[in-house]
Amino acid sequence: MTSYCRTVLDRAGVGYAVTDSRGNLLWCNRALGAVLGVPVEQAYGRSLPALLPGVPEVPAPVREVLVPGPKWLEVRCSRLGDDLMYEVVDVSAWRDRELTVTQEADALRRAQALGRMGTWEWSIREDRVTWSDTLLEMFGFAAGTAFDFELYSQLVHPDDLPMIEETLDAALKTGSVFTYTHRMLRPDGKERVFECFGEVVVGDDGTPLRALGTAHDVTQSSRVHDELVRMAEQDPLTGLPNRRALTRALEQELANNGSGALLVLDLDNFKDVNDLRGHAVGDRVMRMLASALQSRLGDRLIARLGGDEFAVVLPGASPKDASEVADGLRDAVAGFPLAGIGTPARITVSTGLAEFGPGDSWELVLANADLALYASKAAGRDRVTVYEPNHYADTVKRVSVLDRLRAALAGNGLALYGMPMVELTTGQVLGHELLLRLEDQQEPYLGPADFLPVAERSNLILEVDRWVLTTAIDALVAQPDPRLRFNVNVSGRTLEDPDFGNFVLDKLGSAGVAPGRLGLEITETAAVTNLDAAVTLATQLRSFGCRITLDDFGSGFGSFVHLKHLPITGIKIDGEFVKGIETSEADAVLVSGIVQIANGLGLSAVAEWVERPSQVDALKRLGVRVGQGFHLGRPIPLRDVVSAERMPPNGALSSQVVGAEDGARS
Fold first, then answer.
1. Residue by residue, what is the 3-state secondary structure of 103-127?
2. Helix pair angle (448-456, 392-410), 10° resolution
3. Is the dihedral of CA 311, 312, 318, 320 positive or negative?
4. Cα(416)–Cα(472) distance, rounded to whole angstroms?
5. Element (H, E) at 185
6. Element housing 211 (H / E)
7. For residue 5, what are the contacts with CB-CB under 8 A and spacing of at least 6?
8. Closest to 311 measured CA to CA, from 268, 360, 258, 369
9. Beta strands in 568-616 (DSSP E)
10. Regarding predicted confidence, which is higher, 105 or 11?
11. Is pLDDT of 395 > 70?
């Protein structure tokens, strides 16, 4: 009976798989192997979340996942003892039909409203095609233009023409209806996408007499679809594949018993470019460097892992070959012409190299390359280091940080400090941003810059963010004064947690806290990197009454564009624009523009890094109402924020002046 069931499952059109609790495949049927693009026997032991990015890693109801192809999958995950069982259904055809119905309805509405419907008729015996004037205009020609099928074929994208001819041939043989979508380069040089529907009219003897059809311009919806696919696996700043695309490619290479090498590159001192020339120039340099690296590699995969880190997969490469490639990339970065960009900073690159082969996992390979990269940094940067087992000592240190953080979560070793946000005219404290500190009484002391990046490279950050939010809400319950309002920071990883929004709302609801007393701050970089997730979370929480602030506004490329897409209630002006506001005319113009836009959109605006009285005066002249920084108030323990009496007017503005360096450590 067991053999019979296994045979049935193996022949099923639905994909089934069983993984252990960490997501490693223990069994799958042939249908799932086809979806993965990996032979069933070689899939065992591989990470299903890596091969199918987006699948749930814990039991979850049906979830739709978009994978390269592109394909739409419905994935259900359920418990099977101590293991997990996955059911994967390819619903691409259904989605295509749904899209077709939507486009047909849209075309009908437009035809009824505007009277524009592109039609054509093919007289088969005479081999003559008649085009409607509307369709000719859609193709870029004047009404009445002589236009035959040969000219039409010349304008159709050459990759699409064989598909059109095959579709028409099949329809003529069967006398059935048909549809196809193709690209066309119009005479004005613009590429458009057309979706065509048609039917064949046959005589009494079954001979095709003519074919009738309509054409709809679906360029916009096609671009939206392409953008969704691109955003899933593409870095928004550089256009390179992202970490998700890299791990999928590496896991597929390993699943097919491939061998080769992985390079992880980190741009040395890239922060100098941002500090000296600002983030707009930094973004420009990052895009140019990414293009230079990609041109050196040709067809080989290079991905941006985030920040100033890149990775390169080199299938079949020996350590010697991979080292030569890495040296070439190092030379390309070192020779990059920064002088014309207006900054004297010199950029070099540190590289870690790790071999991979059958039996390895993508996590191990990436970790080994990371260790080699750290060794390159420690040895003085601007060099290539091949992974060696003794690099493992560095991992021990990182694991130690995670262990301390886990212990702090379990044993009251974390603390929150409140930094006031102050009305610049009156000095009234309007709320506090909550900052995380590790107070576990262990040596060495770890500041946020020491433990948060480590946490954000693991799932531990999800627990940390939930602890921060829970602690903030508990404090609001303890002090019901509606004037006490908190902002908490949300990491980029938490944005991708589909349950976080419900977690926040459940906590607020059960605690009886007014949602307006809680605000979430999302950095602009995290929001752009996870745009869809940021929009979903912000929409959900804002509709409930929570405040949503875009932090470090102005630090990224195309900042103002993001205001169109993110349903936020406020922005925090990046400190880079504020620290020299009294002396820099450019900063003053930019801040003034940001304030005007914020006012026009009904958003609050808070200036960060307010460290001197002269900054307060300059910001007030530019229309900034609220500020934050060490001149206005240092972070104090959350318990003191909750128990303190309300600050008197102008009290915050009487604080002693501190240096910008101190403010940067807040």
1. HHHHHHHHHHHHCCCEEEEEECCCC
2. 100
3. negative
4. 8
5. strand 178-185
6. strand 208-217
7. none
8. 369
9. 570-573, 604-607
10. 11
11. no
**pLDDT value of position 307:** 83
**Tell me: the pLDDT tens digits for 45-71?**
989 988 888 889 999 888 888 877 778
Cβ neighbours around 165 below 10 Å, total? 13
Gap between the Cα atoms of 372 and 350, Å rounded: 9
Question: Which is nearest to 469 in space by CA: 489, 485, 452, 451?
Answer: 489
611-656 confidence digits (pLDDT tens): 999 999 999 999 999 999 999 999 999 999 998 744 444 444 544 3
Q: Name the DSSP letter for residue 658.
A: -
Structure-token match 């007030």, residue found:
620
Give the 3-state secondary structure of residue 17.
Answer: strand
Q: φ and ψ at 282, to 5 degrees?
A: -60, -40
The C-alpha atoms of residue 293 and residue 241 are separated, in whole angstroms, by 13
243 touches 300 (CB < 8 A): no
Query: Phi and psi dihedrals of 131, rounded to 5?
Result: -110, 140
What is the DSSP track for 291-339?
HHHHHHHTTS-EEEEETTEEEEEEET--HHHHHHHHHHHHHHHHT---G
CA distance 235 to 470: 32
Please determine, for residue 353, whether its predicted confidence score (pLDDT) is greater than 90: yes
- Tell me what the mean pLDDT of segment 278-289 comes to: 85
Closest to 596 measured CA to CA, from 606, 605, 607: 605
In the chain, the amino acid numbered 159 is: D
Looking at residue 40, its pLDDT comes to: 86
Residue 449 has pLDDT above 70, yes or no: yes
What are the φ/ψ torsions at residue 422 (nearest 5 degrees)? -120, 135
Residue 323 has which token pair? Answer: 């080292």
Cα(648)–Cα(426) distance, integer angstroms: 9
CA-CA distance, 90 to 603, in Å (whole number)?
43
Q: What is the C-alpha to C-alpha distance for residues 267 and 353, in angstroms, rounded to an integer?
A: 15
